[in-house]
Amino acid sequence: MYRFSRMLFAAAACCATLLPAGCDRNDTGRTAEDGPAVKVVTMQPKQMEFIQKIRVQANVESQESAEISSRTSGNLDLIPVGEGDRVKKGDVILEYDDLDLRQEIETLSNQVLELTESVALKKLELQRTRLDPLPSDYRNARWKLNAARVRKERLEHELNVFNRLYRSRSVSDLSRLEKFQEFKDSEAELESCTRDLEVLNRGLGELYIFIAERELKNVEQELANRKRELALLQEKRKYYRIVAPFDGLCITNSDTVNGYNAAGTDAAVVHCDRSKLVYAYFEERDVGFIVENRPCRFRSNQYDPERDGYATVVPYEVTKERYSYGDRSLFLVKCRVTKEPKPLRIHSTGQVEIVVPPEKERRCDERMPR
Fold first, then answer.
1. Phi-psi bin for 203: left (phi > 0), alpha (psi -120 to 50), beta?
2. Where are the beta strands (DSSP E) in the chain?
């Protein structure tokens, strides 16, 4: 993880001393063939420091993600989204086979239509009943009662006449019996008309109206129940289609059409890539070099950063929890991605580079064992 790259460049001391010595010799014996004299300039050696960098492995995560579980069980019928495809809010990710449910919905829809027609007919019947609540037998009850009384009185008088004539042997026994039977029939008719009038006076018309209202109410209640059942089935139908809750990248856990998924199965994960995070794990001795809100480079494994450029990340949180990996203690450092030369893929990997200032570098050298 550490990469110390300090180098010290200096000129050789022997060269610095020999060259001036060679130039100080007497040049009076030089000839034309020796050529012009060469001027030699000596320079002091410069010490150059290379910046120390700490590089750690890191992975790209989304700041917001949603795990979608199936609310129903069934066979997959359609998978319109591929692995890692970009989706918009409301796009269908997975769709289950809902043939049985569609048949139930169609049956209930037909029942709702029939009950709707029944309600319309019951309303018309109620209107007719309110206009003329009594059946035909009760419409002229008072007139029938009066007619029955008159007929009974007339037949009673005729029967008395027939009785006198029968005693005087003027009518036969059969004629007297026929007249007597007519009188009894008139009595029965009068009694029936009297009862009908009593029933009418007790509110027969209101009773027929009440019955018509109850019949209408029962049909309306049945229609409301069927509509409620239909709404529940239609509500259940949306569970057969898994849609994206927001814009982002989709990762499905099912890639086989006609495969079976039980209820509660994790069907897909949608990552919102509008804001991305980088998670890096630093060793305990390197955590002190991290400065929050100081930008640093991220070297992605997706592309060549020397050619396409480095991404920029900004650390914003160092978690308190320790993570053990072998004999090392690691701390999670969360960084926000502020610059992307190319879009970083969710769950891709790379390296975070932290620049160590020279004074901290020297302190680190002092802490390291010799």
1. left
2. 2-3, 52-69, 74-78, 86-87, 92-96, 241-243, 248-252, 260-261, 266-283, 296-300, 311-325, 328-339, 349-356
CA–centroid distance for 340 within its chain = 30
Least Cα distance to 251 among 265, 271, 273, 278 occurs for 271
Tokens of 56: 């750690």
Tokens matching residue 59: 């992975």
The CA dihedral of 272, 274, 275, 278, to the nearest 10 degrees, is 70
Give the list of residues 6+ apart from residue 318 with CB closer than 8 angstroms, or none.
287, 290, 292, 331, 332, 333, 334
pLDDT in tens, the chain (370 residues): 433 333 333 333 334 444 444 444 445 555 555 556 666 667 776 665 556 788 999 999 988 888 888 888 888 888 888 777 888 888 888 888 888 889 999 999 999 999 999 999 999 999 988 888 877 777 777 888 888 889 999 988 888 888 888 888 888 888 888 889 998 999 998 888 888 778 777 777 888 899 999 999 999 999 999 999 999 999 888 888 888 888 888 877 766 667 777 888 888 888 887 889 999 999 988 888 888 999 999 999 998 988 999 999 999 999 888 888 888 889 999 999 999 998 888 888 999 998 887 665 545 544 544 4
Sheet with 74-78: list strands edge to edge. Answer: 241-243, 92-96, 74-78, 260-261
The amino acid that residue 3 corresponds to is R
The overall pTM is greater than 0.90: no
CB 354 within 8 A of CB 297: no
**Nearest partner of 195 among 139, 130, 238, 138, judged by Cα:** 138
Are 239 and 72 in contact by the 8 Å Cβ rule? The answer is yes
> What residues are paired with 355 via a beta bridge?
53
Instruction: Give the Cβ contact number of residue 88 at 10 Å.
Output: 10
| One-character DSSP codes across 161-200 | HHHHHHHTT-S-HHHHHHHHHHHHHHHHHHHHHHHHHHHH
Structure tokens at 20: 């001036």
